[in-house]
From TrEMBL:
This is Transcription factor Dp-1. GO terms for molecular function: DNA-binding transcription factor activity, RNA polymerase II-specific; RNA polymerase II transcription regulatory region sequence-specific DNA binding. GO terms for biological process: regulation of cell cycle. It holds the Pfam family DP. Keywords: DNA-binding, Nucleus, Transcription, Transcription regulation. Belongs to the E2F/DP family. It is found in: Nucleus. Its main location: nucleus. One of its GO terms (cellular component) is nucleus. Residues 127-271 form the Transcription factor DP C-terminal domain. Residues 43-120 form the E2F/DP family winged-helix DNA-binding domain. InterPro entries: E2F-DP_heterodim, E2F_WHTH_DNA-bd_dom, TF_DP_C_sf, Transc_factor_DP_C, Transcrpt_fac_DP, WH-like_DNA-bd_sf, WH_DNA-bd_sf.
Length: 284
């Protein structure tokens, strides 16, 4: 076998001889592609994909825009004289138009007349499932919080109504008490050990009170004190009897009757858990 090459052609001629005949087989030259051809064929990072990403960023940041607004901003990003053949205004605007069509086909944006609106990037089923799970957990947490708040309001309503009935019965037997012995709502009670010295300063408008304690103390809210007097009919402790539940129903609207049994059951379940000790404050 013998081979010869020609300097005037771009391929190598290989001559092969056998018993039947001989023929020439052209082989493509594997020499590197000239630099001027690479520059003409390659457009690294500045093609339709690049413009689609830039257009996507623009529309996402604005949420609502137009074709002319996006195109004008992208044209302004490429100064004159920098690769004018590739970045001339007509070419940029054409690529923006093509990029918008691609984004609309992918349902990332929508177009109504001249307005372009951002919809959102496509997500996988796993991402969508994770998002829905997180939203469900947030909604359930809010629902539980609102239910707990409703239950507390119902218990307060029952407690206040029972307090009113208790005061009415007292007045029927003993008459109306003196104003000096009446304690108005709301109020707080301060519990301290015997021998504790309490220093109280009151502002001139009697709106601010400053207390000083020589020992630790405990603040008791009015509702906690009324509950301890069993005016809540055992709803807060889960000890309500059938008669107490019927009595509690007279204190709330009929639409809330179904919640009373739930409150009694839930309070009973919570009562199984050991009650946390009340917070005591140290004197400053």
């Amino acid at each position: 076998m013998s081979s010869s090459s020609s300097t005037s052609s771009s391929y190598v001629v290989v001559k092969q001889e056998n018993e039947a005949a001989s023929q020439a087989v052209p082989v493509v030259n594997m020499a590197p592609i000239p630099a001027y051809k690479r520059r003409r064929n390659e457009k690294p990072g500045k093609g339709l994909r690049h413009f689609a990403m830039r257009v996507c960023e623009k529309v996402r940041s604005k949420m609502l825009t137009t074709y002319n607004e996006v195109a004008d901003e992208l044209v302004a990003e490429y100064p004159e004289g920098s690769n004018a053949e590739q970045y001339d205004q007509k070419n940029v605007r054409r690529r923006v138009y093509d990029a918008l069509n691609v984004l609309m086909a992918m349902n990332i944006i929508s177009k109504e007349k001249k307005e372009i609106k951002w919809i959102g990037l496509p997500v996988t089923s796993y991402q969508e499932s994770t998002t829905l799970t997180r939203e469900r957990e947030e909604l359930m947490a809010r629902l539980n919080e609102k239910q707990a708040f409703l239950h507390e309001l119902i218990v307060q309503q029952v407690t206040f109504k029972q307090l009113v009935e208790k005061n009415k019965k007292y007045e029927q037997i003993h008459g109306r008490p003196s104003s000096a012995s009446v304690l108005s709502l709301p109020f707080i009670a301060i519990k301290a050990d015997p021998g504790t010295v309490i220093d109280c300063s009151i502002s001139q408008d009697k709106k601010e009170y400053l207390f000083g304690f020589s020992n630790s103390y405990e603040i008791v809210e009015d509702m906690d004190l009324l509950k301890s007097m069993n005016l809540s009919l055992g709803l807060n402790a889960g000890t309500s009897t059938a008669d107490q539940l019927e009595q509690a129903k007279t204190c709330v609207p009929k639409k809330l009757h179904e919640f009373l049994s739930r409150i009694a059951v839930e309070s009973s379940a919570l009562d199984v858990v050991e009650e946390q000790p009340k917070k005591k404050f140290k004197s400053s």
